[in-house]
Amino acid sequence: MIRVLLVDDQPLIRSGFRALLDVEDDIEVVAEAADGGQGLALAREHLPDIALIDIQMPVVDGIEATRRIAADPALAGVHVVILTNYGLDEHVFNALRAGAAGFLVKDIEPEDFLHAIRVAARGDALLAPSITRKLIDRFVSQPLDTGTRAGLKELTNREREAVVLVAQGLSNSQIADRMVISPLTAKTHVNRAMTKLHARDRAQLVVLAYESGLVVPHSS
């Protein structure tokens, strides 16, 4: 069962998403919140698999809520999916840098919405390579922190190769085929790279791959 927390300051938006989720046998809405502060408290209480968080809210916005969730070791299993009205913008990029697993535009088709929830619950990034390139090309401006620079130096050649393939949108099984290794070994390479680069999930790993220069926006 996929446990979902809804965080949005508009009751109609929350009720609309809840109506879609409640009819699914494998998804359960465990709580709702009207701002990021309430969302954080409810995330700690319920430990959902997915926190669906609006990017713009009063009191505590979605970016700050994402940052706080990502910084809390007790919430390591919570995958944040950002909701936005506007699609690609700097707020979305900042949410991804803060630790979001991906983002959804609020006018998304119902089937795509449900598919996205299941993808995020598996731990996969909701970032198509074309979307990622646009985000990175437009908004990368912040220098890498010391920990990330040190982590890059620690990556093995195979781990670097795996990171590049993740940034190109490949799954672990596809990475395994490309690198001619087992899916378990591919997963190990990806997980070790995430640990060394202090990436919370695959979405952050994708962002770091572009920011570090391992992948150039127009080269893939």
Structure description:
The protein has two domains: 2-126, Response regulator (Rossmann fold, 3-Layer(aba) Sandwich), CATH 3.40.50; 138-212, Arc Repressor Mutant, subunit A. The protein contains eleven helices and five strands; from the N terminus they run βαβαβαβαβααααααα. Helix 2 (36-46) packs parallel to helix 3 (62-71). It has 220 residues and is an alpha/beta fold. The mean pLDDT is 86. Helix 3 (62-71) links the parallel strand 3 and strand 4 (79-84). One of its GO terms (biological process) is phosphorelay signal transduction system. Residues 3-121 form the Response regulatory domain.
Q: What labels describe this entry?
A:
phosphoprotein, Arc Repressor Mutant, subunit A, 5 strands, WalR-like, 13% strand, five-stranded parallel sheet, Rossmann fold, 2 domains, DNA binding
Task: Summarize it.
The chain is α/β, with parallel strands linked by helices.
Query: Based on helices, strands and strand pairing, what is the structural class?
Result: alpha/beta
Cα separation of the termini = 36 Å
Number of strands: 5
What is the alpha-carbon Rg in Å? 17 Å
Number of helices: 11
Which stretches of 5+ consecutive residues score pLDDT under 50?
none
Say what the CATH topology of the largest domain is. Rossmann fold
Q: Into which percent range does the helicity of residues fall?
A: 40-55%
Strand arrangement, major sheet: 2-1-3-4-5
CATH architecture of the largest domain: 3-Layer(aba) Sandwich
H/E series, N to C?
EHEHEHEHEHHHHHHH
Query: How many domain regions?
Result: 2
Main sheet makeup? 5 strands, parallel
Overall pLDDT score:
86
